[in-house]
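Sequence only, no structure available. Ideas?
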Amino acid sequence: MNVQQTIDPAAASAPPAAPRARVAIADDKAMLRAARDLTKDIATARPAIYWTDTLLSAGLGYAALAGAILVDSVPLAIALGLVAALALYRALLFIHELSHIHRDALPGYRLAWNVLVGVPVLTPSFMYEGVHTLHHARTRYGTVEDPEYLPLALMKPWSLPLFVAVALLAPPALLFRFAVLVPLGAILPPVRKLVWERFSALSINPDFRRRPPEGELRKRVFWQELGGSLWAIALIGSTFAIGWRPLLIALAVLSLTAVLNQLRTLVAHLWENDGEPMTVTAQFLDSVNVPPPGWVAEIWAPVGLRYHALHHLLPSMPYHSLGEAHRRIAAHLGGESTYSAANHPGMVPLVLRIARSTMGRGRSEA
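Reply:
I predicted one. Tokens follow.
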């Protein structure tokens, strides 16, 4: 996850040599109706799946991380670190589910997830709740008011590797945020305001400013920030007793997780919108499904995120139902439908497509 891991679009992008003619994409009402009607019976979150998946992913991640810290063999430590990164990545991505599921759907799950995953990896759920739903707002997607959108395909070629590489800094930045900035903000209101507006959301849009929390979220923010701050201070304090090695290994593992998430973010959309509002179908086609038969996408886009385009049609569909929803809709609409146009073969072709777009813009400016 990235905390304002941004690239200034004013610096990274440049206007094309000639204005692009935009063709408005009308909503495919048959597709929207099929997505709604064919999936009503699988739209309920199943607590046993959520709890089991989360506990197993987090347990495996922490066990592998402990092994990476304790073993003497460098190759074994690297292998265990990779397992830890992948397992914790999966556990962490349940934050996405928390931003969509009804508050009464999984009693106790939000608190348990924050205790087991959110606070320990310094990414509590408030950093996504109330933010990610803005990305799904009908009139915000792809505009300057979307916290999770940058027109990456319209930027310069160097913006893509920078977008991915900056994720390496996320774990130490989060440690600094919770250990230093949060306590400082408790004393100095201007610091508190700055931290909340700029460094309290999993956002990639540098122009996004978070509004003050309201209602139930306000109380959750207080307790999650307090827990995160105490944990971050304890982590730094532990170095005086056990040295820096354990913390540095943990930060390295979480940096790998952050980079993997940033790569997934890079291919979650085609990033071809230039800021204009879009229809639901246009938003769908700017988003990406990477369905079976390939299995690798389940590693880099777990917890249903391989069906990201479908998720934009059915934001509240639980992750464990997205595969079945995809099969039903695809079978009903057929291979020549609008729905099939959002299906892509994998990460590499998507990265190459975006890279070709940026390089084409670079040549047009030369």
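Residues 1-22 have pLDDT under 50 and may be disordered.
Hope that gets you unstuck.
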